[in-house]
Request: fold
Amino acid sequence: MTDGTRAPGGDRPGAPGRAAHPGGPAWLDGARSEGPAPPAEGPVPLLEPRDGPATLVASVPDLDRSVAALAAGRGPVAVDAERASGFRYGHRAFLVQLRREGAGTMLIDPMACPNLTGLDEALTGTEVVLHAASQDLPCLAELGFRPRALFDTELAGRLLGFPRVGLGALVESVLGWTLEKGHAAADWSVRPLPAELLRYAALDVELLVELRDALAAQLAAQGKAEWAEQEFGAVLAAKPPGPRADPWRRTSGIHRVHSRRGLAIVRELWQERDKIARRRDLSPGRVLPDTALVEAARALPGSQADLADLPGFQGRGARRHASAWLRAVRRARGQADAELPGPAMPPPDGPPPTHRWQERDPVAANRLAAVRTVVAALADEHTLPAENLLPPDVVRRLAWQPPEPAGPAEVAADLASHGARPWQVALTALPISRALGRLAEKAGAGETATAEAADT
Reply:
């Protein structure tokens, strides 16, 4: 959000206090946390933590003392996690930041303190404030920390209709401060962590509770507090996704591979790369870039020299495992036709890709267009993104195989069965049912006219 833009449902700047809201979600109650006064005019850089350098927790005794301090604190606890996905294998956390009124800011090193079950027990029932919680919850759970009450500032920003919902953008738009974001892609696995990175990490939770307070007040003012409570609950209740079928198909640029033999080369190289990356604890892209997999699949190299000439295979990391890449390519070249992968297939329990609907089922394509139009209009009316009003997968499933009849009650049940929350169902079921009804009436009238024309 640009300077001078007013946040939907409230004026900028400053986080209003959390007034009591009898009967509302618990996260609407309580006293506002102390924080730096909002700037009087224009955004101002926030350069240092208000309490000075944060405590780095890198031993079990230090962790125990930090957990005790956080447990004795007041109000919600701001949490963030830093990963090194572009450098290390997997998505585990390499730093966990926490801040709570009365306790200050703690920076926990999971490499030295990999067990956070004590923190989990100490904060049971405490609301945790995260930004884009679905990204951090899995790596926190790996450490034994599983929040039971959540406020997601990114999701709140989406429900309020902010055009930009990154942490820095929201802090600037709502509170009037700017956060440095120059280290977002840093290698958080390095040890010791430089003081500059520690300062940056501490600032990420510095204003998170103040931001939460301001957004909570706006949600209440816009009548969206119950929506947010349901969305936060759904994030906490979401089950970790299972392993993907054929994860190699997500190779960037694979759409440029048009032969089954080429797809087999992508598959074999991807699997070989994954084994090496896991063993060396490196991001797969640092072992061999996706572009190399695609170029090999298109060229079908037959020798070490042919392979080495391809883009992506000249780097030191790629050359280190040159013999492994050649073996993978030769495996793919030697596979029988029956073993070669075919085109990607849609999930067995879901509709096909929407770009094929007009050809496969024009009636379903018309339903999809009608439902999308309804959802877009409602989203605009309530000032939030269409995908947050009703998830696209729910829209596709309903349009592909709607209930029969498609009355309001039947549509509501169908939406709920696909994971739509009660507030989403309440807003969309009736308008969608009416839109489907109009389509059916139009189709019926067209069939009648065609039959009458045939009789004459």
Summary: The chain has three domains: 26-237, 247-339, 354-455. The radius of gyration is 26 Å. The mean pLDDT is 89.
